[in-house]
Amino acid sequence: MNRSDSILKLLLVDDSVEDAEQIISMLRNGGIAVRPARAANEVQIEAALEQQTPDLVIVDLGCTELTLPQVRDLVERGGRDVALIASGKELDRERIVAAFRDGARAVLLRESQEFVQTIVRREFDALTMRRSVRRLEASLRESERRCEALLDSSRDPIAFVHEGMHVRANRAYLEMFGYDSFEDIEGMSILDLIAPQDADDFKALLKRLSKGEKPPQRLNLKARRGDDSTFDATMEFAEASFEGEPCQQITFRRQIADGVLEQELDLLRSKDLITDLFNRQHMLAQIERAAAAAVEGADDQSLLLIEPDGFKQVLDTIGLGNADVLLGDMGGLLRRVVGETDVAGRIADHTFGVLVTKRDSAATLALAEKLRNAFGERIFEVGRQSISLTVSVGGALIGERNANADSVLGLAHSSLREAQGAGGNRARIVDPSEQDKAAAATSRHWLEQIDRALAEDGFVLYYQPIISLHGADGDFYEILLRMRGPQGEILPNQFLPVAEHHGKIAAIDRWVIAAAIRAIAERERAGHRTTFFIKLTPQSLEDPTLLPWIAQQLKNARQRADSLVFEMPESKVVTSLKPARAFVKGLEQLRCGFALEQFGSGLNSFQLLKHIPAHYLKIDRNFMADLPKHKENQERIKEICEQAHHAGKLTVAEFVEDAASMSILFSCGVNFVQGNFLQEPEKVMAHGAAA
User: Fold this and answer.
1) What digits encode the pLDDT tens for the residues 505-526?
2) If you count Cβ atoms within 10 Å of the first and of the last residue's Cβ in the chain, which end, N or C, has fewer?
3) Most distant pair of Cα atoms in the chain: their distance
4) Is 153 helix (H, G, I), strand (E, B) or coil?
5) Stated pTM of the model
6) Alpha-carbon distance 249 to 246, whole Å?
7) Does 545 fall in a domain?
8) What angle do CA 671, 677, 683 make, to 5 degrees?
9) Residue 524, Cβ neighbours under 10 Å: how many?
10) Is residue 687 very low, low, confident or very high in pLDDT (cuts 50, 70, 90)?
11) pLDDT tens by residue, 549-566
């Protein structure tokens, strides 16, 4: 489920808030955006279903008030397509079989985070696919209805033939052969409409078609009308389907005595009248053929898309009435530059396409640059005006990995938008196979830089003040990390994912802790009492030697332990509850503090405090966006602060955006605030930051 903009609406049927929270945290740790709700009885399920239709329902098989069949019946009562997933901590074969028999689409074991994420992604993808199929089926039915209407109104004589028999024919076809209604030829063999002298050849063709051979594009023969008169005809074949069965679409045309005129008519059907290039329909057919050839091993094919930059402004200059004149001139220039080797056409209103063959990626890019330069150098005479314009060119190589027209067009269009987004008058070509190689090379590059930074002290600490709203003693800072790079310092979101993937994240945690202890010891020796908030990753929780190592670092620096507060997101603590609890217990023995980040994002975050005695609660950043405009977020922050203070915890509001939010947070009872509005992270700590 790789959709950054898709939010999974999840209903958890579970007696335990803590167990439900754990599932939510597992999903969020996997990058799955979740909008959760929990229900423990029938009334709560009905209320949850009324408020929003969930995508997935995860049912704990140990739920005391509800069985899986009861939940299934409640969900299906509204006719909704919802993925039902059974879950449990320990499941034997009988319970798994019973769960599937009772309507579950999948069964997940709660103990494995990766397993939970995989099952949920799979079922959400399957649900999304089912919904897409239903939309496509509705669209198909509408398209079929329109095709029927077009078929009936078409002047071309068209029939559908299955196993040599007529199954559909339009009015023009009936008139050509002298029949009044389709009932007259329904079930009639197509052979009955072929003159005797061509019947044997056509019968042989039908046999070849029945064996799966491709029909010829055109076949010239004599056709026979219902009154036994004959005429010279050309049959055109196309693969089609009728009522779900494969069949042949056959179009009969009278042969035109002048063969040149016939060719000209065929050419006109494939041409765009404004630009004299091939039209969209012809281009899409050519792209499909190129994609099919790529599946068979053909290479050195690509698609280029060309658009004039700032076309709206160009129209404002020349006037809408002259648009066709300009597009026609652009088509003429494109045709001259491309020549006869490649196929040029009009893909959309002001988007041109070139299907390139027998050119590798370097030659394709050279052609793209040639096109770009040709348009940039040309002065177009439109009416009484002379205008110049530039174009952007985006392209995609056609290979086995993207061997369908939609994929090729999508990649080329993305490349075109990248070129335009970079300022226009540029050419960008994407090679899908090279993208994978580039990603692997990028990962290796980052890993080398990380190893170098660990070995050569190549990281840098930044400090962002955490400001007390109630005059707490001393200064408070959050520690943030950067890595030195060839062109400057690198933000952590660029290198930390690679470090985590390759098992380097715990080593980076240690580097940060050691550097922070040295920095705070130096600051306190200068007379500034300070507290540091240091981020910690779940991988470090699994390291039994970390706590003794921290104690030794503090001892070596002669630094008080309560100057350090380690912090982790609430969701990651929930999914690593056992090691987190042991680690926080060890921190208490050292007298270090602990903070929960992104607090308040779960179903009942305060339940977590029964297991993790955090000292600070850093309120979830989602509550801070446009805080003055969202009364419900203000109420939620106030509620969190009241509960926190009652439990003896201090609260921190991160990502403060404006002065109005400051006054609201103060009235809500927030203890500390932090954000770029107050001060951006800096390499140097200011004196008296909490003042």
Assistant:
1) 999 999 999 999 999 999 999 9
2) C
3) 113
4) helix
5) 0.53
6) 10
7) yes
8) 95
9) 17
10) low
11) 999 999 999 999 999 999
The pLDDT value recorded for residue 5 is 42
- The alpha-carbon radius of gyration of the chain (Å, integer) is 35
Residue 183 in tokens: 């009932």
CA–CA separation, 634 vs 572, rounded Å?
Answer: 25
Question: Which CATH number do you get for residue 326?
Answer: 3.30.70.270
Q: Which residue has the tokens 């078409």?
A: 154
SS3 labels along 40-60: CCHHHHHHHHHHCCCCEEEEE
Residue of 517, 536, 535, 593 whose CA lies nearest to 562 = 593
Residues 344 and 300 in one domain: yes
- Smallest CA-to-CA distance from 63 within 20, 27, 119 is with 20
| DSSP string covering 503-526 | T-HHHHHHHHHHHHHHHHHHHHHT
Residues 156 and 191: their CA atoms lie apart, in Å, by: 20
What is the count of structural domains for the chain? 4
Judge if 293 and 417 occupy the same domain. yes
Residue 457 is encoded by which pair of tokens? 């002290």
Q: What share of the chain is helix, strand, coil (3-state, %, to 5)?
A: 50, 25, 30
Instruction: Report how far residue 195's alpha carbon sits from residue 420's, in angstroms, rounded to the nearest whole number.
Output: 59
**Where does 447-604 show beta strands of DSSP type E?**
459-465, 467-468, 475-485, 488-490, 530-535, 564-569, 593-599
Joined together, the tokens standing for residue 18 give: 């803590």
DSSP state of 391: E
3-state secondary structure of 276: coil
Pair (125, 230) in one structural domain: no
Tens-place pLDDT, residues 296-329 = 777 888 999 999 999 988 988 888 888 899 999 9
Q: Give Cβ neighbours of residue 84 (< 8 Å, ≥ 6 apart).
A: 56, 57, 59, 68, 71, 72, 75, 103, 104, 105
Domain identity same for 536 and 575: yes
Q: Measured between alpha carbons, how far is 248 from 239 in angstroms, rounded to an integer?
A: 5
How does 594-616 read in b/e, with b if 16+ C-beta sit within 10 Å? Answer: bbbbbbbbbbebbebbeebebbb
In a domain, 682, yes or no: no
Question: CA 126, CA 83: separation in Å to the nearest integer?
Answer: 9
Q: What is the pLDDT of residues 261-283, one digit of tens each?
A: 455 555 667 788 888 899 988 88
Same domain, 103 and 239: no
CA distances (Å), 325 to each of 308, 315, 438, in order?
Answer: 14, 11, 43
Q: Which of 440, 433, 423 is nearest to 396 (CA)?
A: 433
Across 106-259, the runs of DSSP E, i.e. the strands, are 106-109, 158-162, 165-169, 218-224, 230-242, 245-254
Q: Report which of 525, 474, 519 is spatially closest to residue 688, judged by C-alpha positions.
A: 474
11 vs 54: CA distance, rounded Å: 6
Hey, what amino acid is at 471? G
Residue 539 buriedness (CB in 10 A; 0-12 / 13-18 / 19+):
middle
Domain that holds residue 224: 154-268
What span, in angstroms and rounded, lies between the C-alpha atoms of 213 and 580? 66
